[in-house]
Each structure stands twice: as structure tokens, then as C-alpha cells.
Amino acid sequence: MTHFYRTYLMPIGYVVLAYFIALGVFYIVLYVSAALEMRQYLREVRAEKYREILSSEIAPSISMLVPAHNEELSIQESVRALLTLAYAQLEIVVVDDGSTDATLSVLETTFDLVAIHPIFDQKLTTKPVHAIYRSQQFPNLIVVSKSKGGKADSLNAGLNIASSELVCAIDADTILDPDGLRRLVRPFIRSEEVVAAGATIRVANGCTVMKGRLASERGPHRALAGIQAVEYLRAFLFGRPGWNRLGGNLLISGAFGLFRRQSLLDTNGYVKTVGEDMELVVRLRRHGYETDQPAKIEFVPDPVAWTETPTSFRELGRQRERWQRGFTDVLWRHRKVLLNRRYGVLGLVVFPAFVLFEWMAPIVETLGLVFVTVGLILGQVSALFAILFFSLACGLGILLSMLALMLEELSFRRYGRARDRALLVVWAVLENLGYRQLTVWWRLRGVASYLRRKKSWGKMTRKGFNPADEADASFGDAHSPIVRAADKPVVATVGSSADTIPAPRATKSLQKVH
Amino acid sequence: MSALTLVIVMLIAITSAIAAVLITVAVSSAIQARRDRLEPSLGDFREAIVTALSGDDSEAKDTLTHLGRLSKRYVVNVMLDVAPSVTGTSRSVLVSLAEQIGVLRQARRGVRSRRWSTRLYSARVLTAFGVESDELSTLVTDRSPDVRAQAAAWCAATPTPLAIEHLISLLNDADGRCRFAAQDALIRIGLPGSQALVDALETSDGEVTMRILKVASAMGDERFYGRASALTANPSPDIRALAIPVLARTGNAQAGPTLVALLDDESSSVALAAAAGLAKLAFWPGAADVEPLLSNPSWDLRKQAGLTLLALGAPGSVLLRATAQGDGPAAEMAIQTLQLQTLSIEAEAA
User: Fold this and answer.
1) Residues facing A165 on adjacent strands
2) What pLDDT score was predicted for residue A208?
3) d(CA B345, CA B247)
4) How many Cβ atoms are within 10 Å of B223's Cβ, its own excluded?
5) Which residues of A touch B190 (CB under 8 A)?
6) Cβ-Cβ contacts under 8 Å for A245 (sequence gap 6 or more)
7) For the segment B275-289, what is each residue's pLDDT rounded down to a tens digit?
8) Angle, helix B42-54 to helix B57-69, in steps of 10 degrees
9) How far is A397 from chain B (nearest CA, A)?
10) Residue A48 — left, alpha, or beta (φ > 0 → left; ψ -120 to 50 → alpha)?
11) pLDDT at res. A419
12) Element (H or E) spanning A287, and its range?
């Protein structure tokens, strides 16, 4: 047994250690890159009020695509929030993807919809469209009713009907900063080579939401949401800006991204897959290299979209498993890019780094754990070494999170209260004691389920930002109570009876944090 | 070095780094907390400034005293928020306040800084207050595209002939931000910039001509008619297509027949623009010339033809109904267009 350990496991141990060092170096490079990017960005936007873009006649027009499936609890609030976004040439296309609940009727009654028969060219094939409506109150609001075909199909239906130069894909339950679009449109004005731009996603659990807008930005006070808030900060203040400078991003969150409509049409829109947002970005970049038309993907750290994250381990596990499955699928679909000189920095730097440091991370971490555990059992590894090795792994994790928190502190400071920020430090430490190991397990399960060709989305339940009994509140209702998202269970009264039903419902939301 | 030693060294390095980061976060947080305690909320302070601007001199003096106690960065931030929303006397008072507390002096110095970020920030401050400065000419040719773009916005705030000249030169800038800012500024300046743009159209070519035409199409000045009309014969279909909305926007009586002639252009984008232009002009004598486009192979052109006929009123509707009786793509488009009309009438009635 000892011979087996020394012959086979010992080399693995050294590989794990080498990987660990390489990972550390990689993260240092990424962090420096992110810090430089953030510094430059903050200097660029200092004292910038974006007034020119707001009222410009030549600013690019934007169509917001909002796929919705069984979103009766939140759709009214979400659409109202979108209608208040400060952008001059804005069209909102809500695509009801065969909802079996009252999503469509809520929209019809709230926004005074009338059926229209717009002439549109079905450039992308989608499930049949049953009807198209326009709001009589808000002429820039269009609602599409179609057979169920999934998120990608809904986005493609929206793309067919949208008429603007740029399209913005968001989830129905996402809350955007009021001036988010003005900030996100800047890269498109800067260069015609930019085909997509992504924004920061933050955790809304704990924030106060009023009339579809964030009334106060608070950090989550519960451990699970708090740890996810740290993860999101790490991904969006550290990872994405870092990649922006190192060779471009591979990922724009499906919760909030802006794309050139023609580029999406040229690449056949969204593909039905678990990770369609990442797949789309990789395809856009590939298309750029293959047709010799530069296709830049930009990340803007400032515009923020707020989203509710899972509040139970069960949901979180399903979400992470799905992300990893989608991630694996995208890497496999586009495996031709890997180390291929034709794809320049994408093939030689970005793609290999994602495979090595993102996709392989849970596998190597598990190998390290096996190596140390077996070594301990066989007496080949001292307890001191095992403890130090574990501390090292945790320490690196904590350091990365702390660096992200430092970037937040020195840049945007969106969580205004000192107590909230102090709590984030606590979550950053706690993350490494159990949570991180769990995510490794979920990610491994994601890879395994991909290998078993499991393609379902699973279900994600959300508490919603708004209780259902407020669904009829008018747009200008000044008495609408303030609701703290996800801090209390939500009930909906059914008819005149006193029956209550649990508010959680299935949604199809997919954001990525790598 | 053994594996254990390596791990210990790495652990020490990581722990030190965590401690350093924590100290930075704590110090920064403490500094910010102190600032927050000393400074009123932005909303309250903004309100105080607005009240002072609408009041008498004594209130302005009180505000000035108050401003002197706060950090300049904070004060400038509030003033930049307020400045674009006030005009007339209030604006003069605000500019005077900014001058007295040294904000404008610092900005004038800042535009000569060696750091691009300082030049940019200073130019933003001067733009917000609409202050004229000799430094503008230098900033228009600055090496930083952000600064050049800001200089363009500044030109819009101070539309002198020289500023307009600078803006026209920025239409040929290599950076998209600068071109956008220049186009936007020229549109905001409006009629005072028209003659310079007409003159520039005489000498420009290619991309610059296209950018000027985009600006002109948003202005609708009769002075563009002659040059735009000449450009409808330009060899480039892109230029021809962009000259058409300019013609249509002028509302000149001669524009209708010119656009009708362009319906037969070899480029479908030009024909499409001509059809859209006829709709804008409501040139109903052109309806019969638009009708054949309903059977054009280009879907976009068929759609525009249908919409144009709808916009031309009774003559267009008659032609649409006649086409709808037949079959093929033309009839299909005509039916869809007529349904659009019916639904919009129903919606209005509802």
C-alpha cells in the first residue's frame, strides 16, 4: 500500500502542489490586470453624468428582451422597473414563453395591452408565436405570446421582433440600476468592433425593493446569500475586469448583457443549451476570428443588475451543478478553439486558462484532498502537513475574496453600511470552511451529469421581490409597502378563500460566476 | 526545498497578504466613515444649493460659507449634479459660487495637466458650468480620446464659430467616442452650426460626408437641400442612402420627385431610404411608383413599401387593397400592412 502511495499518489501530490502554485500566479496576474482596468475605468467615468447619451438623437437604440415563464408574481414589478429606465430610445420586448400561470393576463391588465399585427421577418426559427401585443399606456412595450420553447427560443423570438440596433438580454427577475443602460452602451459608441458588453451582477437578497427599484442597497445578512454575494463580487470585480485586459471575456451573464442585434442574427441567435449565455459569447468571438471581422466583448463594471440568489443548499446545489454542466458543454462544443492559433488570444490564452483554472479546479482540488487523506491514513503525510496544506488552500481562497472586497471598498462601495461590509469579510472567511468544499462537490456532479448527457435545467425556486397580493397595485401607488427581498416568506391569497400557497415557483434563470 | 517548507513559506506569504488587505480595507472604511459623518447627504445638500440659488444674496453667501467647510471633491460633485438643471440668474449664481470657492480656477489649471485623467475631469467641470476657455483648442487635439470627446461636449456648451470648426474636424477622429460626441454636439448646437456643415459637405468625402449627413438629417435645415440633392447622385450607395433623409427632412417641394426617381436605384438600401423619405414627406403623387416595390425580392424593402403606402393616405390604401386581392409576396405584405391599419384603428377606438 505504501509502495502504491509513493509510486502513484505522490506524483499526483506534486502535480496538485504545482497546480496550486500556478493557480496562485494566475490569480495574481488576473488581479493586477483587474486593478489596472478598474483604475482606468474609474478615471474615465469620474464626474461623468451620462447626460449626452441620455438625450442624444444618435445614441444607439436598445431593445430589452425579457423572457418570462410563469413569472406572474414578479413580472409586473420587473416590467415597471424597466419602463422607468433612463434611456431615450428604448423598446421593451417581453416574451411570454408558454406560461401556464397568469403571467400574460397580469401583463394584459396592468399595461393595457392590445393585440397588434406587426410585420416582422422571422430571421430565426422559433416555436410558434400566438400573438403580439402593444401597451396602450407605454407604446415602447411589446409583449409576445408564444409556445413554450425555453429561454433561448424566447430570446430568439424577441430578436425577430426587436427593431433596435442593440439588444439587451435580461432575466425577468433582474433589477437594473436606473442609469445602467447609459453606462453599458459606452463601449458600443467607442468602437464599432464591439459586439457585446456585460455588466456586474450583484446579490439583491437583503436589499429593499420598492416599485421594482432598489430603495436601499444592503448586504445579505444570512450566511448562504452573504457567501454568494462575496462570490459575485469576486467574479465581477476581479475576474471579468481582469479578463477584459488580458484577452477578452468568455462570459456575459444572461441576467444583463448588451449585444449588437445584427451580430446575433449573423450567428443564428441563441442556441438551446444549458449555458446559452456563455455559448453565445464564445460563438460571437469565434465568428469574429473566422470571418476576420473583429468581435470584441467588453465588460463594464459599473452598471449593476441585482438578482435574487438561492436561499437553500438544495437550490444552490442544483444551480451550481447546472452552471458546471453548461460550462462543460460550451467547452466541449467549442473544443476546436483550444490551443488553435487561428483563434489568436482566444485560442491560445483565454480558452486554455478557462479549461485549466476554471473547469479543472474542482477535479484537482478533489485529487489534493484524496492525496492528503490517503497519505494521512497510511502515515505518509504528517498531520502538520495536512493541516498546513488545508490552511493554505483556505488562505488562498480568503485572500482572493479579500482582494475583491478591497476593490469594492476602493471603487464603488455599493454596500453603503460599514456593518454590511464587515459582514462580507466574515462571509469571505466562512466560505472556505465547508461551503467551498460543497461547491466542489456540486461542480463535480455537474461534470458527471454532463457526461451522462443530462440536459434538464432543474428547478429553481425564488421568494420574489414582491408579494403577490400587491400585484394589482397601480403604477403610481404611493402607499405600496416596502418589501425586503427574501427576508420573509411570501404568501399569495387565492381567490376569496384564506388559502395560502407558497410563493416559490419555477423559473429559468441562469447566471454564471466563474 | 521540501514540500513542507514550500507550503509554510506560501502560507506565511498568503497570511501577510490577507493582513495587508484587511488593514487597507479597514483604513479606507474608516476614512470614508469620517467623511460621511462630516458631510450631509447628497440629496439634502443638493436641495440646499437649489434653495440658495433661488433665494437672495445672503442665502448664497451662507451657502458659500458652508461650502468652504466641505471637501472640494464633494462640493464639485453636488454642483455638477445641479449645474445642467439651472439656467439664467441661478446659473450665474452657481458659476459665481464655483468661481469663489476655487472650483473653476482649479479646473482651468487642470486642463493643462500632464495627466489625462486630470485634464478629462477638469474639462468635465468646465463643460458643466459652460465656461469658455482658450484651452479648448488644445483639448480638441488632445492625445487622449476621452479628453477629445469631452472637449466636443464642451464645444456644444460654448458654440462659437471656432468651436463648431473644432467639432467638424472631430468628425474625422479615429475614436468612436470623439465622433459620437462631435455629432451629438453639432445636433445640440443646431441651426448656428448649419452653414459650417453645408460648407464642410462641399469639401468632405467618404465617411466624413456620411457623418455630416447623419447630423444634417437630425437638423432639417433647408440649407442642406442643394448639397444633399447633389449627393443623391454620389457613386457610393451609403452616401446616397444617407442623403435621402436629409432631403426629406428639409420638406422642400422639389424633394418628392427626386425621391421618386431614387425608388429605382440599383441599391436596395437607397430605394428603401427613398420609400421612407416619401412617407415622411407624405408625397402622395409618388404612391403609384412605390406600389411595384411590394413585390421586390428584399423583405425589408417590401415592408417599407407597405408602410409608405399606408402613410400616403387614401391613394396608398387603395393601391394596397388592390394588391391584396392578388397572391404572392406582394399580396401577403399588403394584407399584413392593411391589418396593421385595422388593428391600430381598433386600438384607438378601444
Assistant:
1) none
2) 84
3) 31
4) 16
5) none
6) A33, A34, A36, A37
7) 999 999 999 999 999
8) 150
9) 10
10) beta
11) 87
12) helix A276-291
> Do A125 and A103 contact (CB within 8 A), yes or no?
no
Res A490 pLDDT > 50: no
Distance CA A132, CA A94 (A): 10
A52 contact residues in B (CB cutoff 8 A): 153, 181, 184
Q: Do B21 and A385 touch (CB under 8 A)?
A: no
Q: What is the pLDDT of residues A339-381, one digit of tens each?
A: 999 999 999 999 999 999 999 999 998 988 888 888 888 888 8
Closest CA to A35 of A244, A345, A297: A244
CB contact under 8 A, A47 and B77: yes
pLDDT range class, residue B307, cuts 50, 70, 90: very high
* DSSP conformation class of A468: G
| Stated pTM of the model | 0.85
Name every chain A residue with its beta carbon within 8 A of the beta carbon of B300.
121
The contacts of residue A80 (CB under 8 Å, 6+ apart) are A211, A212, A475
Q: Which residues neighbour A447 within 8 Å (Cβ) at sequence distance 6 or greater?
A: A324, A325, A328, A362, A363
Measured between beta carbons, which residues in chain B are less than 8 angstroms from residue A43?
Answer: 116-117, 120
Half-sphere exposure at residue A415, Cβ-oriented, CA atoms within 13 angstroms: 29
Considering only the C-alpha atoms of chain A, give the largest distance between any 2 of them, rounded to a whole number of Å. 79
Q: A309-328: b or e for each residue (b if 16 or more CB lie within 10 Å)?
A: bbbeeebbbbbbbbbbbbbb
State how far residue B8 is from chain A, nearest Cα, in angstroms: 7
Which residue of B82, B86, B180, B189 is the best one to mutate when testing the A interface, meaning the one whose CB has the most A CBs within 10 A? Answer: B180
Alpha-helical runs (H) found in A194-260: 223-233, 240-246
Show me where the domains of chain B are located.
291-350
CA dihedral (B214, B220, B226, B232) in degrees, to 10, reads 40
For residue A34, CA distances in Å to A190, A301, A406, B226 come to 20, 10, 12, 53
CB B182 within 8 A of CB B210: no
How many angstroms separate the Cα of A97 from the Cα of each of A100, A101, A370, A507, B222? 9, 11, 45, 11, 49
Reading the block at residue A227, the C-alpha cell is 457567501
A489-514: b (≥16 Cβ within 10 Å) or e: ebebeeeeeeeeeebbbebbbbbbbb
Predicted confidence at residue A344, as pLDDT, reads 92
- Whether residue A386 contacts residue A412, with contact meaning beta carbons closer than 8 Å, is answered with no
Query: A405: which chain B residues are within 8 Å (Cβ-Cβ)?
Result: 21, 25
- Location of C-alpha cell 506569504: B13
pLDDT at B171: 95
CB B243 within 8 A of CB B220: no
Q: In the predicted model, what is the mean pLDDT of chain B? A: 87
A 10 A CB-CB count for A283 gives 22
* Cβ A109 vs Cβ A79: under 8 Å: no
Give the residue from B167, B168, B172 showing the smallest Cα distance to B157. Answer: B167
Residue appearing with cell numbers 502513484: A8
CB-nearest to B14 from A382, A396, A405 is A396
Single-letter residue type at B43: G
List helix spans (H) across A9-147: 10-45, 51-55, 75-83, 103-111
The 3-state DSSP class for residue B277 equals helix
Looking at chain B, the number of H-run helices and the number of E-run strands are 21, 0
**Residues B293, B263: Cα–Cα separation, whole Å:** 8
